[in-house]
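Lecture notes, part 5. Sequence design as translation. It can be helpful to think of inverse folding as translation between two languages: the language of shapes and the language of residues. The source text, in C-alpha cells, appears below.
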C-alpha cells in the first residue's frame, strides 16, 4: 500500500518537474525572440541615426554656402543694374555689326550681354545663344557649347545639355570630330579650344562596336542605331535642314580654279586620342596651310573608315581629314584619301600609340611627328563648300579633297578601332565642285 502511494507521489513529482521544465523552456524561447527583436530595432535605430547625422551635416554645409551665394547674387544684380540702360548692348551690337564674320566667342559674349540686359526670355537673347551653338565647331569649343546650352536651359528652352557640361565633367582637352576632354574625350569631347573634326559621341548612341548606349554619349550622336546620321536632325537641325552639307560624291562636270593649296606642316610632339568617334591627332601651333595665299592654322587631323567622300560613286578604304582655321574663324578641311596597298610608315607610327578604346589623350615622351608624312607629293584637288560631317553640321566649311591617294595596308585598316565612322553622302543641291 505504502509502496503504491510512494510510486504515485514519485510519478506526480516527475510530471510536475517536467511541466516546470517545459514552461521554463517556452518562456526562455519567447524571451530570446524578444531579445532578437529588440536587437533588430536597435540596429534600425542606429542606421536612422547615421542617416540623420549625414542629413544634418549636409544641411550644415548648405547653410555655410548661403553667404557666398548671397554675395554672388548681389554681384549679379550689380552687373545687371550697370547694363540695364541698354547703352552697352547697343554699342556692342553696333561694333559687332561691322564684323562680318563674328567669332563664336564674340557671339556667345553678345548673347550673354543680351541676357543680362533684356533677360533670358527675350527672343533676341535666345536667338543669340542658338546662333552661338550653330556657329561653334562643337567639341572643339566645348566651353562655348556648354555655356550656350546652359543659358538656353535657364531661359526655359527645351535643350539637352551635353554630359561633358556637367559640373563634375573633366576639363577640356580635345576629342574627335572636334576635340575632346583630356580626361576622357568626355571629354568633351571637347578640346583645348580647337576646331571640331567637323566633326563630338555629348554624347552619344551605341558604342563604337555597336554595344548599348553609353551614358556619356546619351545626348550625342553615333554612326548607327537610334542616334545614327538619319536621326541627327532631331537634335541638330542643321544636320537635317542644311543645304550645303558634307560629304559629297565627287563627280564631274567640274569648274576650274587658278589658286593652289600649299601645306607648311612642322614636326611636333605627338598628341593622340581615341574620343569615341575616331582616332584624332591634336597639333601644337606652328603648322599651316595656305589656300590662295591665305594662311589657315592646322588644329588637328582624324580618320574615317571608309572615306566619307566618294569619287564617282566609290569610297576609298579610309580618309584623313586635316582641320584648319584662320584668324577670321573660317574652317578648311584638307582630305587625303587612303587606298589599300603597301604599309604606310606614318600611320604605323600613329597606330603604335593610338588608344584602342576611348580615353584620355596620349602624349608619349620624346615622340615627334610631322603631318607632312601623311600627304601625297601632288596637291591637285577637288574643292567644294560643305559642312562639319558630324553634329552640329555647321556649314561654310571649305573642303579640299586631294586627287592623289596614299597607300595604307589591309592590316593597318583593320587595326583602326572603328569598323565604320563615316557619314553618308549628302545632296549636292545647287553647289558646284571645283578643281585646280
Amino acid at each position: 500500500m505504502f509502496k503504491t502511494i510512494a510510486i504515485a507521489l514519485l510519478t506526480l513529482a516527475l510530471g510536475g518537474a517536467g511541466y516546470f521544465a517545459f514552461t521554463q523552456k517556452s518562456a526562455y524561447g519567447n524571451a530570446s525572440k524578444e531579445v532578437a527583436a529588440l536587437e533588430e530595432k536597435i540596429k534600425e535605430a542606429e542606421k536612422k541615426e547615421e542617416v540623420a547625422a549625414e542629413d544634418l551635416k549636409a544641411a550644415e554645409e548648405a547653410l555655410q554656402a548661403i553667404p557666398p551665394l548671397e554675395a554672388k547674387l548681389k554681384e549679379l544684380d550689380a552687373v545687371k543694374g550697370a547694363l540695364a540702360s541698354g547703352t552697352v548692348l547697343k554699342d556692342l551690337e553696333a561694333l559687332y555689326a561691322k564684323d562680318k564674320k563674328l567669332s563664336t566667342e564674340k557671339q556667345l559674349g553678345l548673347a550673354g550681354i543680351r541676357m543680362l540686359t533684356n533677360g533670358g526670355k527675350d527672343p533676341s537673347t535666345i536667338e543669340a545663344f542658338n546662333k552661338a551653338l550653330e556657329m561653334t565647331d562643337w567639341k572643339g569649343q566645348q566651353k562655348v557649347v556648354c555655356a550656350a546650352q546652359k543659358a538656353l536651359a535657364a531661359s526655359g528652352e527645351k535643350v539637352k545639355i551635353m554630359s561633358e557640361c556637367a559640373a563634375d565633367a573633366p576639363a577640356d582637352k580635345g576629342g574627335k570630330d572636334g576635340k575632346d576632354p583630356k580626361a576622357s574625350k568626355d571629354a568633351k569631347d571637347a578640346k583645348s579650344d580647337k576646331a571640331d573634326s567637323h566633326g563630338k559621341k555629348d554624347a552619344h548612341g551605341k558604342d563604337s562596336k555597336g554595344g548599348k548606349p553609353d551614358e556619356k554619349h546619351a545626348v550625342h550622336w553615333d554612326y548607327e542605331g537610334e542616334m545614327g546620321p538619319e536621326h541627327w536632325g532631331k537634335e541638330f537641325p542643321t544636320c537635317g535642314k542644311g543645304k550645303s552639307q558634307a560629304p559629297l560624291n565627287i563627280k564631274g562636270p567640274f569648274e576650274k580654279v587658278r589658286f593652289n593649296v600649299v601645306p607648311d606642316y612642322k614636326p611636333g610632339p605627338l598628341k593622340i586620342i581615341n574620343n569615341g568617334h575616331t582616332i584624332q591627332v591634336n597639333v601644337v601651333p606652328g603648322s599651316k596651310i595656305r589656300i590662295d595665299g591665305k594662311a589657315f592654322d592646322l588644329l588637328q587631323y582624324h580618320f574615317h573608315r571608309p572615306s566619307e567622300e566618294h569619287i564617282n560613286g566609290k569610297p576609298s578604304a579610309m580618309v584623313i581629314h586635316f582641320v584648319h582655321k584662320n584668324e577670321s574663324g573660317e574652317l578648311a578641311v584638307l582630305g587625303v584619301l587612303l587606298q589599300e596597298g603597301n604599309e604606310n610608315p606614318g600611320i604605323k607610327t600613329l597606330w603604335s600609340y593610338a588608344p584602342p578604346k576611348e580615353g584620355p589623350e596620349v602624349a608619349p615622351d620624346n615622340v615627334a611627328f610631322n603631318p607632312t608624312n601623311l600627304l601625297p607629293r601632288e596637291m591637285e584637288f577637288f574643292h567644294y563648300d560643305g559642312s562639319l560631317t558630324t553634329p552640329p553640321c555647321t556649314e561654310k566649311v571649305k573642303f579640299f579633297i586631294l586627287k592623289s591617294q596614299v597607300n595604307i595596308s589591309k592590316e593597318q585598316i583593320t587595326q583602326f578601332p572603328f569598323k565604320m565612322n563615316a557619314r553618308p553622302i549628302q545632296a549636292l543641291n545647287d553647289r558646284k565642285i571645283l578643281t585646280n
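The translated text above is only one of many valid answers, since several sequences can fold into similar shapes. The two ends are 139 Å apart (CA to CA).
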